[in-house]
């Protein structure tokens, strides 16, 4: 299923990101009360066009990893901490024609952009109620555990600890008083840039599969 966000939270996001280089809006999608909620950084160009989270090249890698532990897109929930595609504006020269061309490549969302979506993400998490959250990469991990959290140190580990929620006044985050299960993972795009990471990532997913069996 595609989640339907409350209009007041969408309006809040719209107001807070006004004037920023963000495009489209890709809602979270999948099963409610799943074993796994996969949390990415933000939609990319393919997601902006097709409105399906993790449907581009990195999404194909993610589906391969999910399949190794017996899951697919329909048996998990997939979202991101930012729901619009962040882009930068670059002017380049076309080598064939010599003409100047404006391009809008993907970029990492800023901390302010992540915070702008924080209430929306908190609402989404409360609706989905996953057994385990799987933050994919540093942006998602730090949204949940704070700026000191690092995917290189925490990948593949089962964590049972409080996560961050947005403060009601929108000024930042505070930690919950209850614990949440998380297993941080490298972002699937990491494999596209460095194939040598693949054995490590595969091991991490096998560990996640074992964690799920124990929690079930």
From TrEMBL:
Q: Which UniProt keywords apply?
A: 4Fe-4S, DNA damage, DNA repair, Hydrolase, Iron, Iron-sulfur, Metal-binding
Oxidoreductase in keyword set: no
One Pfam family, short name: UDG
Q: Keyword check for Metal-binding, yes or no.
A: yes
What residue ranges carry the coiled-coil annotation?
none
CDD domains attached to this UniProt entry: UDG-F4_TTUDGA_SPO1dp_like
**Top-level taxon in the UniProt lineage:** Bacteria
Q: Which residues form the Uracil-DNA glycosylase-like domain?
A: 27-206
**SMART domains attached here?**
UDG, UreE_C
This chain belongs to which protein, by name?
A: Uracil-DNA glycosylase
Q: Which organism is it from?
A: Limosilactobacillus portuensis
Q: What is the lineage of its organism?
A: Bacteria, Bacillati, Bacillota, Bacilli, Lactobacillales
